[in-house]
Specification:
Elements lengths: L9 E2 L9 E2 L4 E2 L2 E2 L5 E4 L7 H9 L2 E6 L3 H6 L10 E4 L8 H4 L7 H10 L1 H12 L6 E5 L6 H13 L3 H15 L2 H12 L6 H8 L3 H15 L2 H7 L4 H11 L2
Parallel strand pairs: 5-8, 6-7, 6-8
Antiparallel strand pairs: 1-2, 2-5, 3-4
Amino acid sequence: MTTTTQSPVGRHDIPGVYNLRDTGGYRAAGGASRARTLYRSDAPHRLDDAGRARLAELGITRALDLRGEAEQRAAPSLLGAVGIEIVSLPVFDEADPASVHRGTQGLAPVYDLMVDERGHRLADAVRIVSRTPRGEAVLVHCTAGKDRTGLVVAFALLAAGVDRVEAVADYAQTEDNLRGEWADGMLALVTSHGEEPTPAIVELMTASPAPMLEALLDRIDAEFGSIHGYLLAHGLTDADLRRLRTTLIA
């Protein structure tokens, strides 16, 4: 059974983002995940000048934006104003995960779609994480920092050697971070478009259940042998994986 853990570095409370946190301090084979190297967040488009400057102060030099082009146009991050390089790598070409499978039975089909049909995008994102220069940090985000970000960050941590319990708990922490103002606002938006916030839609928009990721990782292990096997099958090299460990593990 997975037990709850939390990074000793943890969440950063900066007005304008709800789910910003450092993934440093997690147990890993031979050490722990390195602080001030890999951050994850919801979309940073609500940040004001002071908030954007705070991200730069955290050592973030690159932001990996996993949103589709339409999402990026509707809510630009503007992080370039503080010298942060913005790298666009849409996991989906245009639509966010909720709209891709609106009307489905929750998150499972979305995650299956990402793993089965967007594996090269996920692997490309992990490669970008692996190339973070020492002393700098990368921020990975989508809209909620929940599903696309959740898989990329979990895959990166696991492939670097972070304990599975820690990686799954990091993923699950998002639901608590988004609870309240962020989740209420998203569900109100659903209602304003004439849709009923059914349990499946609520899960799509707000949930990050640990059993969901556990089941997905079990499937990847069964089909590819390990997360390393999955990433290698989708374009990463052994050198990329060695670099990832060097980058993320202290």
